[in-house]
Design a protein that fits this description.
The protein is α/β, with parallel strands linked by helices and about 300 residues long. The chain is about 35% helix and about 20% strand. The strands form two sheets. The protein has a seven-stranded mixed sheet with strand order 8-9-7-10-13-12-11. Strands 2-1-3-4-6-5 form a six-stranded parallel sheet, with helices on both faces. β5, α4 and β6 form a beta-alpha-beta unit. α1 packs across α10, α4 crosses α10 and α5 runs parallel beside α7. The protein is globular and about 65 Å long.
């Protein structure tokens, strides 16, 4: 029998992207609720119970409500794209390339928490260096990032695209999360293996999708005062060759005149760069990804595939 997949919240930005990625596949049985019935709790509970894998594309409270709808003996496996369970030890963290054994953890889990788009880039840069003993766990990490406005969902998309919207945003670029208490901080700290939360400054640009995440470092404050090649080698050793996370060669990165946040749009890939000038004592680690690809919908589909492959 074909695996039954239900996207709870399929009419939102992430859900629509997942649905589009799965459209036309004849190896899956897609369960669906008409948009007019999306708040029908009884119908949602029925679909959740029938699904082999349910993907929750809901706000945190909506995700918790959906989880509560499942009977304690229900075997439905869940992928939660909200922030509700990303630091929950009972949920596998759905960044397959994060570490050795993570794919297996996802494949065998009943509950998988899809990572945030910003944390995907930040953790990809930070965790390997902490594990390699280069970046101290108590280092004062800062993360600066810019995302396409689709990351804010339908409301921000409307504000950015509709000039007559009552809360229209005309700015070409804006900062937010100014209180430094962004909801992604707990997962950045936990899965980045940090002793304290980083200082995170997110922003949004006037482009639909795409993302740059930056982690600048003072090399002299790192263990052993590594050079750029040492930092690059640690990242390259962690991710290897041929996967969806590519560590760009140092020479290629050094020759770039600029970094485009939209370069990997409509892909599920992520590129990691190490920038800097030898002898200057500084490095800038940069991740480029599609916030709706490797950062959201693409990651959810990847996790679904691993879970289906891991079915007994």
């Amino acid at each position: 029998m074909k695996p039954r997949i239900f996207i709870d919240g399929e009419h939102g930005t992430t859900g629509l992207q997942i649905r589009a990625r799965l459209s036309g596949r004849d190896d899956l049985d897609m369960l669906s609720i008409p948009e007019a019935e999306r708040r029908n709790a009884g119908l949602r509970a029925e679909m959740l119970a029938e699904a082999d894998v349910a993907i929750l594309c809901l706000p945190d409270d909506g995700a918790r409500e959906a989880i509560a709808m499942l009977d304690g003996n229900n075997s439905t496996r869940l992928i939660d794209t909200s922030t509700a369970n990303r630091v929950n030890p009972d949920w596998a963290y759905g960044f397959a390339e994060m570490d050795e054994g993570q794919e297996k953890a996802i494949a065998t889990a009943r509950f998988v928490a899809n990572p945030g788009c910003y944390p995907t880039g930040a953790i990809a840069l930070i965790r390997p260096l902490v594990k390699a003993g280069i970046l101290p766990a108590d280092y004062p990490v800062t993360v600066n990032a810019v995302s396409g406005y689709s990351g804010g969902g339908k409301q921000l998309i409307a504000q950015m695209e509709q000039a007559d919207h009552p809360e229209h945003v005309a700015a070409p670029h804006f900062l937010y999360g100014l209180s430094l208490t962004h909801k992604h901080l707990p997962e950045m700290q936990l899965h980045g293996l940090l002793d304290r939360a980083p200082l995170f400054s997110p922003s949004v640009g006037r482009f639909h999708q795409g993302m740059i995440v930056q982690v600048p470092l003072h090399i002299g404050d790192l263990k052993g005062s590594p050079n750029l090649a040492d930092i690059h080698a640690a990242l390259a050793a962690h991710y290897g060759d041929g996967g969806s996370v590519e560590v760009v060669p140092l020479a290629v990165s050094a020759a770039l005149p600029r970094v485009d946040p939209t370069e990997l749009n409509d892909t599920d890939r992520m590129q990691l760069h190490v920038f800097g000038t030898e002898g200057k004592g500084h490095a800038n680690l940069v991740a480029v990804l599609d916030n709706l690809g490797k950062g959201a919908s693409g990651a959810a589909v990847q996790n679904m595939e691993l879970m289906l492959a891991g079915r007994a």
